[in-house]
Amino acid sequence: MYIRYLILCIPFLTAFFLKGELKPYKISGYAQGTDYAITYYATDSIVTQKGIDSLLRVIDESMSLYKKESLISKFNKSDSGIEVDPLMLAVLKRSFEINRDTRGIFDITVAPLVQAWGFGPKQQKGTPDSAAIRQILGCVGMQRLRLKQNFLAKEQACIQIDLNGIAQGYSVDLIAQYLEQMGAKCYLAELGGEIRISGRKPNGSLMKIGIEGPDENGIPGIRHIAGLEHGSITTSGNYRKFHQNGSKKITHLINPKTGYPLDNEMISVTVYAKDAITADGYDNALMAMPLKEALAFVAKRKDLEAYFVYHQKDGSVADTLTLGFKKLLTDSTKPTNTL
Q1: What is the pLDDT of residues 283-303, one digit of tens each?
Q2: What is the domain-level CATH number for residue 245?
Q3: SS3 218
Q4: Which of 4, 132, 293, 302 is 20 to 30 Å apart from 75, CA to CA?
């Protein structure tokens, strides 16, 4: 009887020891002009920093404006266009979708405007006048691009693209894909503040992330804590990256329709979506909308949730969020309003 009991238990004991204990492994480094940090749970160190860095280098070779020989740099220098690789092709396809969905507010052809306002890869002195802006706008607009199979064509040689508003989110998605291919099913991957999460911690608790925003004095801080089991959170804001021109703050976020930096009540927008390319692609577009319009836009889309920090008419800082985003919060602090 005892022997029979032991024989029956052997498969369960073997499975227990083979499964082992999940432990946290951390990888951090520097890529794409910013920091990245990865935490994954596994029985062994199945993912290495060398593997992550190699992946990020391949992405840079495709879409980094700061590499002269990258694919995007070659397109920007070309007269009529080039063949793109699978990485850029995936980002371009999603960019065209979001451009149509936002009616042109999200636009990757803002590159010459970003450069003119001093936020591009080349050093820039001074600010452009209205005549210069009008001239540049003749080279802006995704309707001037054509994507046929893997060839990206442009109507004029002056058209240049900037994928910084979406490529970093895609990079996080590729990191997540790589982690899963290596066997890591439970992880948190962050690159430049763009985050993707899968699974719970071994103790069953949700992975938690801080939702940042500025206070009344413009000083960044954690405003809320969100708990996620799956999905991505990205943030776009105008309180970190800007130039000062006298008393006027010039943000790095440019309106592709007017040619001028954004100047509305928005301070930051944090977006939740299933994948980081989607969240990253929409956060800048929502920053460009008036608050009421942005709230209505998100409310009509089941795959998006958002949290907004904005200036009220008296200049004070307030926040609001969608009901779906409120459900992600684990802290007791309540934002001003909910939709």
Answers
A1: 999 999 999 999 999 999 999
A2: 3.10.520.10
A3: coil
A4: 132
